[in-house]
Amino acid sequence: MARKEPAADAANPGRLKQIALTYKMTRRADKKIGLVLAAVGIITFGVFLAIGFLIGHPIYLGILGLLLAFLATAIVFGRRAERAAFGQMEGQPGAAAAVLDNVGRGWTTTPAVAMNRSQDVVHRAVGKAGIVLVAEGNPNRVKSLLAAEKKKMARIVVDVPVHDLIVGTGEGQVELKKLRTTMLKLPRVLSGPQVTATNDRLRAMGDLMSNMPLPKGPMPKGMRMPRGGKMR
């Protein structure tokens, strides 16, 4: 037990530092975040304290209200921080790949399985819903990339459903902030072994970017394919 206490003490400053950093990043895009969090906390606590006085138990309801105020503040902060993060990522090359990496367990993501010289990109995710091709870039140009990739999937994994999504704010497109939710709503049609078999077949096939290390998260705007790399 004595050994665990120093580790826990060391983790707390790191966690608080991370929260502070997240707050600063959120505040850049959401100037009212401080006022909103304060209002949520004060109102939640005030309501429970008032109820406590009305029923004759201000201490018990006050403690409960304090705990729920912290919980409500944390929930609101998390949602607004997520919204601010998506707002900053919107429109950046590779933003969809960053979201796909956090879809959840059971999904295997391969970024940039297809790319053209204009930096329009198609990413691939494999899960119990089948294969999901996610494109980001110019809507007109990415359609040809998606069509070529779907045709390739049909030759390799004929028995696996293939879905295609285009990230954007236009008609028929999926907003970046709704990408994860949209994927999780897809019907699950494959079993665990089928997902593994599909990943094995695709891995054996190889990808456009298999020999090129990619940084996690959005790709730099100035990034270009190497001269020796193939373009589609």
Automatic annotation (TrEMBL):
<dbReference type="InterPro" id="IPR025445">
    <property type="entry name" value="DUF4191"/>
</dbReference>
<dbReference type="Pfam" id="PF13829">
    <property type="entry name" value="DUF4191"/>
</dbReference>
<feature type="transmembrane region" description="Helical">
    <location>
        <begin position="59"/>
        <end position="78"/>
    </location>
</feature>
<feature type="region of interest" description="Disordered">
    <location>
        <begin position="208"/>
        <end position="232"/>
    </location>
</feature>
<keyword id="KW-0812">Transmembrane</keyword>
<keyword id="KW-1133">Transmembrane helix</keyword>
<feature type="transmembrane region" description="Helical">
    <location>
        <begin position="33"/>
        <end position="53"/>
    </location>
</feature>
<protein>
    <submittedName>
        <fullName>DUF4191 domain-containing protein</fullName>
    </submittedName>
</protein>
<keyword id="KW-0472">Membrane</keyword>
